[in-house]
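Tip: read the tokens left to right.
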């Protein structure tokens, strides 16, 4: 597997995770604390997270299919972008698991 496949997934996992944490904090500020300015913030972050989550799904599916993940594991990786902070933990685990595959692929000579 190419390093770029794993890198794309890792970047989108962090971006999606950060936006989801910001969205959660915005919802807490809006609904529990009754802050007036939180409504606009929550709306903008929700839209950004929604669109970027679609990219996360594409990159995670691409990475999972190239790593030949079983269906259950692939679903967990895909759902991790919807649970606050889960994307960070899943990304860390995936990166550790796939690091040997990326290292082995870069050590192989190019086939002509």
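Filled-in amino acids:
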């Amino acid at each position: 597997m190419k390093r770029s496949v794993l890198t794309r997934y890792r970047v989108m996992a962090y971006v999606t995770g950060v936006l989801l944490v910001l969205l959660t904090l915005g919802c807490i500020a809006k609904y529990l604390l009754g802050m007036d300015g939180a409504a606009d913030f929550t709306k903008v972050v929700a839209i950004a997270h929604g669109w970027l989550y679609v990219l996360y799904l594409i990159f995670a599916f691409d990475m999972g299919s190239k790593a030949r993940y079983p269906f259950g594991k692939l679903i967990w990786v895909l759902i991790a972008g919807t649970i606050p902070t889960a994307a960070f933990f899943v990304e860390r685990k995936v990166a550790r698991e796939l690091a040997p595959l990326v290292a082995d692929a870069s050590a192989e000579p190019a086939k002509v």
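The chain has a mean pLDDT of 90. The two ends are 17 Å apart (CA to CA).
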